[in-house]
Design brief:
It contains three helices and eleven strands. The protein has about 180 residues and is mainly beta. It has one domain: Fumarylacetoacetase-like, C-terminal domain (Fumarylacetoacetate hydrolase, domain 2, Alpha-Beta Complex).
Length: about 180
């Protein structure tokens, strides 16, 4: 999911977030080092991972970090979709229970800096609506969400510009944490 904030929807002239796809080959383990060599404008987005249940609903939640490369300005929805919403890598933490969203709080650490989100849906909108949007988008293409699949719901804080040498840790209380190191 990307560009679901009200300002982004208006700027792109779209009525719902853009839906990309996560490739298994782009999954990296927590604590791994990822090279940013050749990237144009790397950003990191701390997100909530949503596991899909047998009934198509939310079966579990956990922390996720998405790495994206903003290769070109985000002004054209079709171009953004063609670039898979800039997605390059994702770190997905352990699956926890499907807690009520008001039980979650997010903290992101990079060096001596910290970002917080006590309202993890503040930028993204309700996770249930995000999953519903993905479901509808897939249905329009003759596809459907499968049990066990993961939807990442959009950044809980504004995307962070990152560079080689950065180490980022994301804690989604009380579900757990993930981290990543960035190299050149």
């Amino acid at each position: 999911m990307g560009f679901g904030a009200a300002a982004a929807l208006e700027r792109l002239g779209i009525d719902g977030p853009l839906v990309g796809h996560l490739l298994e080959s782009n999954l990296v383990e927590t604590g791994a080092t990822v090279s940013l060599a050749g990237w144009t404008h790397p950003v990191l987005e701390p997100e909530v991972a949503v596991w899909i249940g047998d009934d198509g609903g939310i079966a579990g939640l956990g922390p996720a970090l998405e790495l994206a490369d903003l290769e070109f300005p985000p002004h054209d929805a079709d171009a953004i979709l063609a670039a898979n919403v800039y997605q390059r890598h994702v770190v997905v933490g352990a699956r926890g229970p499907a807690l009520s969203i008001d039980q979650l709080a997010a903290r992101v650490f990079r060096g001596g800096e910290e970002w917080r989100a006590d309202d993890v849906e503040g930028l993204t909108g309700p996770l249930a609506a995000i999953v519903g949007h993905v479901r509808a988008t897939l249905a329009a293409a003759g596809e459907r969400l499968q049990a066990g699949e993961i939807v990442i719901g959009g950044s809980v804080v504004l995307p962070l510009a990152v560079q080689p040498g950065d180490r980022v840790r994301y804690v989604l209380d009380p579900l757990g944490d993930v981290s990543i190191r960035l190299a050149g």
